[in-house]
Amino acid sequence: MRELTPLHVRGVVLPDDTTRDIWLVGDRVTFEPVAGAETISEGGYVLPGLVDAHCHIGIAAGGGPVTTVEQALAAAVIDRDAGTLAIRDAGSPFPYPDLDDHPDAPRLSRAGRHLAAPKTHLRGIPIECSPEELPIAAAEQARAGNGWVKLVGDWLDRSLADLGPTFEPDVLAAAIDAAHAAGARVAVHTFSETAVSTLIRAGVDSVEHGTGLSLDDIDEMARRGTVLVPTMINIETFDDIAERAEGKFPGYATHMRALHAAFPEVVRAAYEAGVPIRVGTDAGGAIPHGVCADEMLMLHERAGMSAVDVLAAASWAAREWLGFPGLIEGGLADLVVYEADPRADLRVVRAPSRIVLKGRVIR
Ligand SMILES: [Zn+2]
């Protein structure tokens, strides 16, 4: 990285809740004073940036793959400018490994392409696999990404006219094992009640959406430490999905509406059971980028998560989970500053007063 002016920030550092001086030298944090550093913020509350743990910078607005690295970067920059300094891309139809070290891009933890059964995802997005192909594709996509593999665990099954599992449990388990053997963690898309139970027990690392989770599943996730990324913004679109499907698949439409109605309680139960929750917006396609704060507020207001737990889920705990050390000695030089205490009023996260990414002032 090119030479950067050392930066100095003084404020209440969360989660420690102590007023501290922080220096950023290149792409590193230090608490040792640095001569000649430029003070960019005094007062305020300092976090290591927000994390969108489920979005898609490789899916263009309106659907379909992006076609250039610049388009993917433009999406990531919208998130960055809202204070999201790390992203887990939960499946990209367009590869963009060049952005891993790009100074303008947030920290990236990427899955390769979604893996699905034929006709069980959006057109042009996944690799469509036979049961025999799925474990091989999981190992390949582990290498295409930089830490994650994305499986589609269920989808509208036209023969059932309802949600149904994409693959038999033993096939999904073999794919999870293959991804793990290739060094990646596995995130799985599930809406229904059926697939998710077997996937949790097969050792999936994160459940995406998880509208169909039972209390037994939730207990099992808590026991195993399986992460839930509820994407409440996405679940808000279920009634529209139901409306469009009503004519052809009325049972599916009813199911989707029921899952939507029950969802805040599912997330609340998971939170109360101690399931690790992360904040993910599912931006890309139908959902705009830059809405991490909206998802945080929904988790707080509708699912009953405390402000400080939402902050952990959207910041320091999520960064640790993804391997991006925050505001510790030698951590990565990312931070956001808020003028007021976000623990007292979480709406503060909508308006960072300062954003620094990779040692460089963004705002
Ligand atoms: Zn998604």
From TrEMBL:
- InterPro entries to which the protein is assigned, alphabetical: Amidohydro-rel (IPR006680), Metal-dep_hydrolase_composite (IPR011059), Metal_Hydrolase (IPR032466), Metallo-dep_Hydrolase (IPR051781)
The Amidohydrolase-related domain sits at 45-355
Under Gene3D superfamilies, the record lists:
Metal-dependent hydrolases, Urease, subunit C, domain 1
Cross-referenced Pfam families, in alphabetical order?
Amidohydro_1
Would you say which domain of life the source belongs to?
Bacteria
Please state what the protein is called.
Amidohydrolase
Give the source species.
Asanoa iriomotensis
